[in-house]
């Protein structure tokens, strides 16, 4: 009886631990509102990316624009994404036109805050300009609760923790 209990107890514990998730605090959701400038023309494709401290792409957080035939217009991001082409269907939405705004939920890994990582918003509009860093800011505990002005098609973005 003691021998079988010594065998059953560790197996039960290991089984329980294998079904338990330890990742409950590894990412946080942020509401991200993008307000566009009053431009004329087609809707803007916007890519929100996480950049590492060396300025290299680490992850695509969100894409406004779900027609992948135009992704190559977002030149710098395409150099990263186009080589790998991971499935981004779960993080895409419609384009945003001039003067409009859109609200999306983006997931940001908690271990990237206050570590030199950046968030970049790239924008492109058909037959118009491309802005590699329309909005770019360091990912800090304060910046994820702030409003940041854009340089191109984006008037500003506002982040709010959920």
What can you see in these coordinates?
By secondary structure, the protein is an alpha+beta fold. It contains two helices and nine strands; from the N terminus they run H-E-E-E-H-E-E-E-E-E-E. The chain has helices spanning 2-18, 75-84, and strands spanning 27-36, 45-51, 57-64, 92-93, 101-109, 118-124, 130-138, 147-149, 154-161. The strands form two sheets. It has a five-stranded mixed sheet, covered by helices on one side. Strands 5-1-9-8 form a four-stranded antiparallel sheet, with no helix packed on it. Strand 2 (45-51) and strand 3 (57-64) form a beta hairpin. Mean pLDDT is 88; it is low at 16-23.
Approximate shape: globular
Low-pLDDT segments, ≥5 res: 16-23
If you compute it from the alpha carbons, what radius of gyration comes out, rounded to the nearest whole angstrom? 20 Å
Give the class from helix and strand content and strand pairing.
alpha+beta
What is the tally of helical segments? Answer: 2
Can I get a quick summary?
With 162 residues, the chain is of the alpha+beta class. The chain contains two helices and nine strands. The strands form two sheets. The chain has a five-stranded mixed sheet with strand order 4-3-2-6-7, with helices on one face. A four-stranded antiparallel sheet has the order 5-1-9-8, with no helix packed on it.
